[in-house]
Amino acid sequence: MIGPGYGFALFADGGEDTGIWHQIFNFDNYGELLGLVQNSLLAGVLLGLVGGLVGVFVITRDLPFAVHGISELSFAGASAALLLGVNIVAGSIAGSLIAAGAIGVLGVRARDRNSVIGIIMPFGLGLGVLFLSLYKGRAANKFGILTGQIIAVSTPQTAWLLGTSVVVLIALALVWRPLTFASVDPEVAEARGVPVRALSLAFMLVLGLAVALCVQIVGALLVLALLVTPAAAAARVTASPLLLPVLSVVFALCAMEGGILLALGSTIPISPYVTTLAFLIYLGCRLATARRATRAPGPALGSPRGTVRTHT
Amino acid sequence: MGRAEVVFPLSPADRGASRSADPGAPVISLRDGVLAYGDRVLWRDLRLDVRPGEFLAVLGPNGSGKTSLLRVLLGRQQLTGGSLAVLGRPPGSGSRHIGYIPQQAFQPTHTLLRARDLVRLGLDGHCWGLPLARRTIRHRVDDLLDAVGAAAYADTPIGRLSGGEQQRVRIAQALATDPRILLCDEPLLSLDLQHQRTITELVAERRRSAGTAVVFVTHEINPVLGLVDRVLYLAQGGHRMGSPDEVMTSSTLSELYGTQVDVVRVGGRIVVVGEPNAGTGHPHDDGAEGGESQ
């Protein structure tokens, strides 16, 4: 465990000239630390892949609120597991899948879905608070479920992460095309025999697994930074069905791995680094497109309208 | 336009096999069709044969079951009674031979999909797996967009196109699988006259060049009056079918509505005056529309 204690010791040795910035950014003994977090870096790659790819459909299907709702029940599952002394990852996956299934079955229409999420979310959060209050173990464990703990990823935990990620990635690859069709053009997709309802439920379950994965690392409160922000940033700069997932994964990887590397020596949990990086990437993408739009007010937007060929 | 010569790249063998032996046999065959939501009957005793190359316009007030008829033909809505064969099979099983142009337009915020992506989804969006970039598919998409005059905005996000441009792309999407039946749900809604003409002309051209049967739901017959072979007029749980001259008369529509309706012909256009519950809503409309739009 190289968590807070070690970092704090480094800070204490560091002298007077440092202050709060040194607490946030501390690169003393960086090489040694790097060797200790290989598991975490691997977990970061998995999360970047899963978050970036699942995020594409979270955006196209307009599900950010569902992500938040699922993560609260995932939190409840994880804290129940903590209280009972069973596997926390399994607990958070169970919570996620129950929430995702409920949202998928009860919330077929967008309007129903949002109320279902609004009802499930506080219930999950309340359960989580209850379980954590009953738990008499280390406080850091409690805090970790909410705000993430990637620095402490253990080898058995990595195995769980790897297994779940592989399931998510294979499932996504299988349904990618019909899910795209069902997400962007449900009317015609249904007419062409695409099982729109079944795909919707299947995606909710995939989303549940992805949320449970992310909760392990960035914490229940900050899942959106991995499952929404990178894809939303990518959607600002491209509409290409190939470039969108690629950029989304690249952004998620940058936020995730960058966050781990920055958080390494400091006493602060990883989540603020990841969320800030993700936010900066989004901001950059927004500014880039805003500038493009003001400089050339139309080639992508208006020009074809004038030159419609009457072919007939 | 040469669209008929474009070779369908996915499985020509399958296409050849599914053409029935008799080229004039009906592609849609509905017998004693009944559709009801609860105790509200939309239509009953509907007997309908649509042959290759035929243009059937479906008219009627809101909530009369026009869209529901398309849903039945697509196999997305069960008949309450009667039997239906589409291309000689139960509805819903031959969906790749049916091109469908839905009513709904894309929101301006819908920018995650370019025109060419929408067309491509019509081509292979129903297949499992990842969308691999294949040159044959790209060429096919280009040809389809070119044929409807939409090549200029192939790479523009669909939500940023005007209504008329979106409908062109919709037609390209619907024609992607070289369908034998084209189902159109109010494709002219909220288009100006010029675009209405272009879109109907594209549909008509498809019918001429490939013998595709067209079922065209509309609340306004004039834009398609010159193309229509038969009119199916749905209202008040009943229906009338025949040529426009037979159906669009004061006596026929008055009988169907059970009240005096006047049909006037002005300069080659048909104007219907006095339809009950045309325009603003009828108490029943909400429920029926809700059922239709699910």
TrEMBL record, chain B:
Q: Where is the ABC transporter domain?
A: 28-261
User: Which SMART domains does this entry report, sorted A to Z?
Assistant: AAA
Keyword Ribosomal protein in record: no
Q: Which GO terms describe its molecular function?
A: ATP binding; ATP hydrolysis activity
Q: Where are the annotated segments for Disordered?
A: 274-294
Q: Which UniProt keywords apply?
A: ATP-binding, Nucleotide-binding, Transport
The UniProt entry, under InterPro entries, shows: AAA+_ATPase (IPR003593), ABC_transporter-like_ATP-bd (IPR003439), ABC_transporter-like_CS (IPR017871), Metal_Ion_Import_ABC (IPR050153), P-loop_NTPase (IPR027417)
Domain of life according to the entry: Bacteria
Full protein name? ATP-binding cassette domain-containing protein
